[in-house]
Amino acid sequence: MLSDTVSSYFQNNSMNSVSKSTLVYLQKLAKNNNREWFAENKTQYTEEYEKMIDFASTLLIKLNQHDVIETPTGKKSLYRIYRDVRFSKDKVPYKIHWAGYFKRATEQRRGGYYFHIEPGNKSFIGGGFWSPSKEDLLRIREEIAMDDEELRNIINSEEFITTFGTLDGEQLKTAPKGFPKDHKAIDLLRYKQFIFGKSFSDEEIQADDFADQVDKTFQAMRPFFDYFSDILTTDINGSPI
Hints:
- The protein is an alpha+beta fold.
- The protein is built from twelve helices and four strands; from the N terminus they run αααααβββααααβααα.
- A four-stranded antiparallel β-sheet has the order 1-2-3-4.
- Helix 4 crosses helix 11 (210-220).
- The chain is globular and about 60 Å long.
- The two termini are 26 Å apart.
């Protein structure tokens, strides 16, 4: 948790919304996605980057009021705007969005918080387990196969449905190896990813309370994170690993 002094400072110097100039810059970048234009407009990039650092810092402060986050600063949460084109056929050099990720602290707290800012009503807040390891995925499936009620209660809760709609993620077309095709929880066992998100319009991300809305969305993820954290830090008998 952050000290009261630091928390007070950021609360008084926070950026609670996404600036219109940030969206305008991203729109321009999408139309001029080349190194020459980027270099000529480096000053504007730096200005918008600093605004996103301030916004991410605001989110970090809010998160640390109800969770423990390993990511040390808002700046550290942000992904680079430069694309890795080494193994891609698409050689466009820059992303046309800002994004960031906050990792929960310690092995006892699994999951993380993702934010994505992109003009054209494409912004969203996401969470879940994008690419669980083979071992983690097996452990999750074992737990679901033994008792699927708790997970169903979470994803069928009013808060989850109102905030995220449904559980998403890539699924197998048939039963995973070692699990019967007619298992009563086969719809959940087929998941290879367990992800969910909430979309926001350009108007919403520019509203004065956007950071609060993001934080509210983050808080709605906690029952899911806490459930998976409990699974992944215990064995099939419930004993700590």
